[in-house]
Amino acid sequence: MDLDVFVTTHRAEWDRLDSLLGRRRLTGAEADELVALYQRTATHLSLIQSSAPDPQLTGRLSQLVARARSAVTGTRRASWRDVTRFLAYGFPSAVYRSRRWWVPTALLSVVVGVLLGWWIATHPEVQASIAAPNELRELTRPGGQYETYYSSHPAASFAAQVWTNNAWAAAQCLILGIFLGLPVLWILFQNMLNLGVGFGLMSSAGRLDTFLGLVLPHGLLELTAVFVAAGTGLRLGWTVIDPGPRSRRTALAEEGRAAIGMAIGLALVLFVSGAIEGFVTPSGLPTWARIGIGVTAELTFLAYVFILGGRAARAGETGDLEAAERSATVPTAA
C-alpha cells in the first residue's frame, strides 16, 4: 500500500467525519452519512494496521473511530443482563471450547503428581532431603502440621486467604500464557510438586487416607480451576505461534478477551473451593461427608461446563464480546 496516496484519497472523508462528530445536532441525512463514514474509516484503520502501520496516523484514526463508535452506538453500561449472559453462556462456553487444552493438561498433571508422590514415598533418601526426620514426623503424625494447617486460622479469614492465593495462581497462568506458555508449565509443576510432597510423605507414614480426606473435599474443584487456567494459558501461547486463518493481532485479541472473562469466572469457582477449604475441610464432618461435598461441587462444575457450556458453544457462543462490541476488522482469507 502507498500510504501517501491512501491518505490523500481518504483524508476528505476523515475530515468530514470529524466535522460531523463536532456538531451537537444532526439531520437525518447527516446521521446516515456519519454511520457510513464511521464504517469506512474503521475499515481504513484496519487496512493501515495490517498493511502499512504508521503510529501517528493509526493514533488519529483510532481516536476518530472511537468517537464515531460512541456517537453511533451510544454509551453502553453494564447491566445484570450482561452478568446473567456471562454466567449462563459466555464463561461455560469458553471453558468448554478450551477443553482440548485443559483436559489433557489435567490428566498429565495428575500423572506427574502421582509419580512424584510415589517417588518420594518409596525413596527414604528423597524424604531426608526434604526435611530432618523429626520435622517429617511433626508434619505427618496424628494432629501434626498437615492436619492442623486447615484449622490454624479462623475459617473465614483462611478461606479468603486461600481464595486470594489460588485466584492469583490462576491469573498468572492466564496472563503468562502469552509467553509461549512456558511460565504456565513451571506453575503447573510447582503445584504438582507441592501435592506430590504431601502425597509421598503421608503415604510413607501410612496415613494416605487421612491426606486424601483433607485434600479431596476442596482439591478437586480447586485443581480443576487451576487446570482450566493453565490450559487456557497454553492455548493463548499457542495462538502466538499459530494464529490459524486469523491475523495474529485478531487471534490474540479474541483469545485474550476470552481469557479475561475466564479469569473472572474462575475467581468465582475458586471462591467456592476456598469456602469448602475454609469451612468444610477442617470441620467435624465424617470423611465420607466432606469428600462427598467436594465430589458434588466438582460434578456440578463439570455438568455446568459440558452440558450448559457445550450447548452454548454449539449455538455459536465463544466467550468473546458480542459482535456489536468488537472493533471492526477486515476479512482475512483462509
Q: How would you describe this protein?
A:
There is one protein chain. It contains 13 helices and no strands. The chain is mainly alpha-helical. Helix 9 packs parallel to helix 11. The chain starts with a helix and ends in a 20-residue tail after the last helix.
- Broad structural category: mainly alpha
Strand content: under 5%
Cα end-to-end separation: 21 Å
Shape: elongated
**SSE order:** HHHHHHHHHHHHH
Spatial extent as radius of gyration: 26 Å
State the helical fraction: over 70%
Biggest beta-sheet profile: none
Uncertain residue ranges: 323-334
Put simply, the count of helices is: 13
Number of strands: 0
**Mean pLDDT score:** 84
Please tag this protein with its features.
mainly alpha; 13 helices; elongated
Write the layout of secondary structure elements.
Layout: H1 3-21, H2 28-51, H3 55-73, H4 80-97, H5 99-122, H6 124-130, H7 133-140, H8 145-148, H9 155-176, H10 182-204, H11 208-241, H12 248-280, H13 287-314
